[in-house]
Design goal:
Layout lengths: L2 H19 L1 H21 L2 H22 L3 H10 L4
């Protein structure tokens, strides 16, 4: 699945509710999910790690949707001119 497709799925499922919640709350949820991912990487099972990776990706896609940016575009620099 392409990142733009991920954003579209998140938009269809949660777009309206996420916009009502707002950007500050979305950033807070993203940070919380990053913490859960960190804990799963340290102490969790592979299934828990996969679950938390999905949550982080979904919240990141929601944030990108709300600020009107494409994750594909954001990642393109790693293809075209990777940071060293």
């Amino acid at each position: 699945m392409e990142l733009d497709a991920v954003q579209e799925v998140v938009e269809q499922l949660y777009g309206r509710a996420d916009r009502e919640r707002g950007i500050p709350s979305t950033v807070a949820w993203l940070c919380e999910e990053l913490g859960e991912l960190a804990q799963a990487v340290r102490k969790g099972t592979r299934e828990e790690q996969l679950h938390e990776l999905g949550d982080v990706l979904a919240w990141l896609a929601s944030l990108a949707n709300q600020i009107g940016l494409s994750l594909d575009d954001a990642f393109r620099r790693y293809v075209d001119d990777p940071p060293v």
